[in-house]
Amino acid sequence: MRMGKKLREPNPEDELGKHSHIIRISDCDINQNRLASMKRRTLESPRLLNNSSGRSSCSIFRVPQRFIEMNGRVYEPNVVSIGPYHRGKPHLRMIEEHKWRFLGSLLSRTQSKGLTLEDYVRDAKRLEPKARECYSETISLDSDEFAEMVVLDSCFIIEICRIVGKLVPADPDDPILSTFWLFTFLLRDFLRFENQLPFFVLQSLFDLSKMPEEEEEYKTGGGHSPSLAMLALLFFNHATLDRPHEVIERFRNYQPKHLLDLLRSTYTELAQEEPRKGKPTTHVIETVTKLRLAGISFKERKSSDNFLDVNFRNGVLEMPAITIDDFTSSFFANCVAFEQCHKHCSNQITSYATLLDCLINTYKDVEFLCDAKIIENYFGTEGEVARFFNNLGKETAFDVEKSYLSNLFGEVNDYYRNGWHVQWASFKYTYFDTPWSFISAVAAVILLVLTVIQTFYSAYPYVFEPKKQGN
Fold this sequence. Notes:
This protein is mostly helical.
């Protein structure tokens, strides 16, 4: 009988060698309460930047702290809180009291339609889950508090827009609308990125509160009553970035993310965008001063009222005129913040701000753009305008290859690198930029010609006369 091989007992050390990735941890004391807390934290959703922030539905973010450090309080409301982020702040309490007055006026007007406050609250609660998803930060308000905030803030905006749009009679002594500085701050605060309500919430409560006589009055005139989008744009037309009637009419049925996105879209949706020809060679262009030295000139583009419609052709950079003041600076800063946070929108305002950041380095660049009628400055000194655009361009993620100005950046740089253009432009700038430099250049040329003639006649007897004698 043949005997098989004897099997030896497995050695634990051999097993450890086979599975060398197993780590043996020595016994030690563990705080069980801390361990339980850690386990709970792994199951909790982030609150300051929640899990839904990357979705297209999320469009109202906290502005990154670095932007606030660079641009100051341009993102923070001055007189009115809209939405949850700045709700309850002491310096906004004055308008908070007036919101209830505007809500009371709306309720007294729509009660003949059979609507009560309960109907508005019910509509707000119906939209609550969808509305909460629009905020990047988890809102700590309970359902009743959230609905109250939505009704109060939405009806305030709707009533302001209706009064300004003349759908509702205005009280000439209204302390909100008759105080110029307050009205000016409202224009800016309604466009703060952190100070937004989802537009579909405003639209729903606007439709609910619409009275039959509003439509009838316009039908007798052969038209239709303005939509909420139109009324909001008419309201913002009291600022410097006013939109033509045909643009407002075109956006009658537009459904933006919020009011900031509405005004922004009237520029971005209508901007002329050409197909990209290829990858640009650089992500920046030179300043106004350097481009002028290279022979590039700047001209106001009068054929467009959209500041985004920048064009470069035959060495001429054409830019529509833009007014820079407290309103437009706030609008630019909040649009850039929106485009940086919401990945599901274009980067056209960021592209334009980057263009100005490249063109402007010192007050002299701003001064020239003002002289060329491209910038109308009501913001402050030329140095302050330069600082604003330089700060606005910092810390922003910008990919020129995805920019609507991609072709322009490439064409400007190709022209700038052309040696003949640079040398000829430098010559003109040096000798023909001012009358005195021109006179000096002409005098130098005349002196040079006279010197050549004198040299010729001085050398003539020595060069040509001996030949005559030899003949």
